[in-house]
Amino acid sequence: MSCARSLPATKLEVLFGSTPAAIEYQGLAPSFTGLYQVNIVVPNVPANNTTALSLNLGGVAGRQTLYNAAGKWGFRGNVNAIPG
To answer: How far apart (Å, rounded) are the C-alpha atoms in residues 24 and 36?
Structure first.
């Protein structure tokens, strides 16, 4: 569990298409200064090689939408994007 001081001041939402992902952890990454880590559970989405992955922070959509393979096998790839 992360401490309140390490959480973003606004709500983070991760979407696969229009389906929200469950956020298991969000907060400062251990052993890194100023780096936020987010662990998510990929929602049940149809298997697809071009599933849109987007981030919203405080209701503001991120500037880019990422496309990656997702589906019954899970999500394949790393996401390094900051919304806003």
So the answer is: 13
| Cα→Cα distances 7→18, 58, 66, Å | 24, 13, 23
Which CATH code, of 1.25.40, 2.40.50, 2.60.40, 3.40.50, is assigned to 4-70?
Answer: 2.60.40
Quick: pLDDT tens for 34-49: 888 888 888 888 777 7
What confidence tier does 6 reach under pLDDT thresholds 50, 70, 90? low
Spell out the alpha helix ranges (H) of the chain.
none
Q: Which parts of 1-84 are beta strand (E)? A: 12-16, 19-20, 22-28, 36-41, 48-57, 60-61, 66-70
